[in-house]
Design a protein that fits this description.
The chain is α/β, with parallel strands linked by helices. It has helices spanning 41-49, 92-99, 111-118, 133-145, 163-176, 189-192, and strands at residues 2-12, 15-25, 30-34, 56-63, 66-68, 77-80, 151-155, 181-185, 197-200. The protein has one domain (2-204): 3-Layer(aba) Sandwich (Rossmann fold). It is 27% helix and 27% strand. α4 (133-145) runs parallel beside α5 (163-176). The longest helix has 14 residues, at 163-176.
């Protein structure tokens, strides 16, 4: 998938977060959105995902050279962010079964395979609401990274992860981000270590 930003600007009330971003994200590219807190990294990522609208400008999503409308993006994009809500009343197995009824797992992985990869098997039948913050973050990462989508969007993906969790994230990225357009919003090199391109939002004030 190719994603093109044309004169994208965003403001909250009278304050402009960023202005006039013109940028194209290409198939299989890896990009890091950089900038201090409040610079708009998370906001821009949500705009790219079609979850939030820009104040001005337009964004074009194209797959196989065909334009994809915003209301049809769901099958093409996986998203993970610290504030993202998941259905915590479900057990892990129930949640993953529900999620992957809408999206196809990567490489034909089964639900039990994904649970094993996350190392959460011992808690597979516990409600997610009873998980620690780090365990919940692994669930959020799993539903995004293991979905077979051409685009993977990650907002501060190592939030709440301990060192073991960070190493697990790095391993998943190395295996499952190939041949995908990946955009990471983060200033932590542990999270965007694999990204070949960088976009600094301070350049668009």
């Amino acid at each position: 998938m190719k994603i093109s930003l044309e004169h994208i600007s965003k403001r909250f009330q009278r304050h402009w977060i960023f202005k006039d971003i013109n940028y194209s994200f290409s198939d299989n590219g890896t990009y890091a959105l950089l900038g201090p807190n409040g610079s708009g990294k998370s906001t821009l990522l949500r705009i790219i995902a079609g979850m939030q609208t820009a104040s001005s400008g337009q964004i074009i999503h194209a797959y196989d050279e065909k334009k994809i409308e915003v209301n049809s993006l769901f099958p093409f994009i996986s998203f993970c962010a610290p504030g993202q809500e998941i259905v915590e009343e479900l057990t892990l197995k129930e949640f993953l079964t529900f999620h992957f009824s809408f999206k196809r797992p990567m490489h034909g992985l089964r639900i039990d395979d994904i649970i094993a990869i996350t190392n959460l098997g011992i808690a597979a039948n516990k409600q997610v609401v009873d998980y620690s913050s780090g365990m919940k973050q692994r669930v959020k990462l799993a539903q995004a990274i293991f979905s077979d989508t051409p685009v993977l969007l990650l907002d501060e993906p190592c939030t709440n992860l301990d060192q073991t969790g960070v190493e697990q994230y790095r391993n998943w990225i190395e295996i499952y981000s190939k041949n995908r357009l990946v955009i990471v919003a983060s200033n932590d090199v542990r999270e965007h270590f694999f990204c070949k391109e960088q976009i600094t939002l301070e350049d668009y004030k």
